[in-house]
């Protein structure tokens, strides 16, 4: 049941069989329970189709246009002339989507780079504000060959403004003030009368070029806009292929006649049903591929910030396989029965070094001999969901035949739509984050008192 959901027949396949009573027994969803939640999500799927048709939800229309991509490519081409390092400043959704695509292209994995990337400027992300880190970074960078891309939708994010001001000051101090328009690029909302935008005001004073942040798509949902695609462009990825993958998911939405036909609806209904019927309070995202490590981090923000409202929501947890088989799997297998795992598998048979049988025998690991490293990971990524199912622990699998730009774009859109549908099923607004505003207000008050 629900074992054959594919986006456009090529990108990936989802199975929620490991969440059902027929596979994991009493800890899984009974057919009647699962069907009831799929019925409940049906009207939300239809509402989402209306959101596409009316343009009410711009995220669903993002793949219908590529002018913003052309603008981003042109801006990057100008900015990167003579550059050796591209620094990205932005926090939360202004960084994680870009990190998702950059790591897909090999960023932050030592010794890994796609063909052609070794001739491109290096990319760095500083999403967290830390005084010691920022001081060390600005002192160690070769500023004449460094470029800064600063992203804030509102233009008022305190952490990002602090980074931008510190970088501007550092550049001025080494006598490069006249070069500032060539060294910086901003991404923020267009000017709106009566609405303050500190980043736009600051950058305008220095003549720094700016790209317009999509006004209808913000934060954690912005990875398919220029916010996330600029790092993809910097790493040499094809942004149009990323968008094409995302469009395949939207096309599947519009073509679906019932929730069972649409993988994100099945995923959302299953997650909410497990929470409400079986007491599952923790969702684990566990890809088995280094290039998808930031996918888990991006998903954690997406799910947590979208659904954790009014006492609703479940706690997302990022993991990486097979690494976290040696750190967290014990808890998932034998701890409280409140975990639901999504295991993302990338076909890896035959990939990587082949293990010498004689050396494996000497090491007492005969079973490894003759296999590639990819064979070993593939065996692990199938064995773990099977072990979880046997232990009565709910597990979803997502199988990827080929990890390319189209697939990563489809994955991103799948999880965003799944999250939106889960929020609407729970009766919460998946697009706001009201609870974090208090901390921002109190931070300002403390700084004002200190001044």
Largest β-sheet summary: 6 strands, mixed
Strand/helix succession: EEHHHEHEHEHHEHEHHHEHEHEHHEHH
Rg over C-alpha atoms, rounded to the nearest angstrom: 23 Å
- Largest sheet: spatial strand order: 1-2-11-10-8-9
How many distinct helices? 17
Secondary structure category: alpha/beta
**Can you give the mean pLDDT?**
95
Distance between the termini: 62 Å
* Low-confidence region ranges: 1-9
The coarse silhouette is globular
| Total count of strands | 11
Percentage beta strand: 5-15%
Which bin fits the share of residues in helices? 40-55%
SSE topology:
Blueprint: E1 5-6, E2 12-15, H1 21-24, H2 31-54, H3 67-79, E3 85-89, H4 93-104, E4 122-126, H5 131-140, E5 146-151, H6 158-173, H7 180-183, E6 184-188, H8 198-205, E7 210-212, H9 226-234, H10 239-255, H11 263-278, E8 282-287, H12 293-307, E9 315-318, H13 329-334, E10 339-346, H14 357-362, H15 373-390, E11 395-400, H16 405-426, H17 437-450
Parallel strand pairs: 3-4, 3-5, 5-6, 6-7, 8-9, 8-10, 10-11
Antiparallel strand pairs: 1-2, 2-11
Helix pairs in contact: 2-11, 2-16, 3-9, 4-9, 4-12, 5-6, 10-16, 11-16, 12-16
Keywords summarizing the entry:
451 residues; 17 helices; five-stranded parallel sheet; alpha/beta; disordered N terminus; six-stranded mixed sheet; globular; single chain
Characterization of this structure:
Strands 1-2-11-10-8-9 form a 6-stranded mixed beta sheet, with helices on both faces. A 5-stranded parallel beta sheet has the order 4-3-5-6-7, sandwiched between helices. The chain has 451 residues and is α/β, with parallel strands linked by helices. It has 17 helices and 11 strands. The longest helix is centred in the first third of the chain and has 24 residues, at 31-54. A hairpin with a 5-residue loop joins strand 1 (5-6) and strand 2 (12-15). The protein starts with a strand and ends with a helix.
